[in-house]
Structures are given as structure tokens and as C-alpha cells.
Structure of Thiamine pyrophosphokinase:
Amino acid sequence: MSSHHIVRDAQEPALIIAGTHLSHENIGQLLEWSPVIVVTENCLEEVLTWDIKIDKIVCQDIRYQYVYAISLHQQPLEIWQVANVNPSDFVHLALQKLIQRGHEAVSIIWEDFNSKDFFQYIEKVEIIVYQSYTKGYFVKKGVFKKWVTAGTVFYLPEREIIHEVFNLEQIDSHTYKATQTGLASFQTPQPIFLQESIE
């Protein structure tokens, strides 16, 4: 994978890479739009082998010198520091910084993502989360609509309150499947986290 030098701004979704489990094909699709790329220290060494331009790195403050040294060839870049070594703290700081800089949408690659910790941001930024087999969306109360192919599966990790669905068959308390290709929708009275199956 390679990324050309392109002027980046807050218009396109930024990309936080906090895990490297996603397929190269899916990662390549996320990089097509030349997003601002933020990488967390826990997966930095692997991402540095991908031959892409990194814009920001989040690391533990005591690891700053090491992170700076191994990413010299990526200059210019910013290194944001946190006291803790927890990847969750890295992602929170990255989100807060991106929101401060005017980003309206952020994609996150992170296998250990826990939606409960991130509802606090849904009024400030649109977040899409990529895990190995799912793409997750935070849905504000109201209606979530998406064009899908027949058989697309959606998961609700928690027992969310759903008032109405369209073009979706309920498989069990957490799972819905699109009955035909076309628009599918969920109506909810509260914010929810919804996952769509991906290859």
C-alpha cells in the first residue's frame, strides 16, 4: 500500500489506526480519500512497514524519544503524548484533537473498540469503527438508513430499543438481515451503536 503526498484537510474523514487486523483491501479503500492518518503507538511499528504517509502519532510520553526516532522519515508529523499506555487513552486523545481541529467524521480501525466509552462524542463527530468482520456506526436517535444488498447482516451489540425496521428481518435479539437489495432502515428513540457485517 502506498499513499501519495496530497494536501489534507478536515473535509474528508480522518483515520485513526489503533489496530492492524483489517484486510489490506479494506484498509486500501479507507486510504483512497487521502485522509489525515493518526496511528497509535501500539501498532506503529507495523504501520511503518506499509509505506503510507502518517500525519500524527499518539504515544505514551515516556516513549516519545523512541517513537520520534523510528518515525523520522515520516516528517513532517505531529506526536501527541499521553501519560498512560492504554490504547483506549490513545484513541480518546486522537478523537479529542481531531474534533478540536474541525474534523466532522473519523474512521477508526480497532479490534478492541468498546462503544460504551465513545457515546460521549456522537454530538461532535461522526464515528465509523472497523473491526475484523464488522463496520460500526453510532446512530443518534431517529432513523438510520442505508442502501444494502440482500443478505447484509446488522448486529446490535447491546439490547437496544428499536421501534421500527424496514427491509430487515429479525434473526434474534441482536441480529437483523436485509431481505432484499435496497434501502434498509432502523428507527430508534435513543442513540445506539450498530454494526454491519463486512467481508
In short: The chain has two domains: 14-132, 139-197. Residues 53 and 73 are 9 Å apart (CA to CA). The helical segments are 24-31, 44-47, 64-70, 87-100.
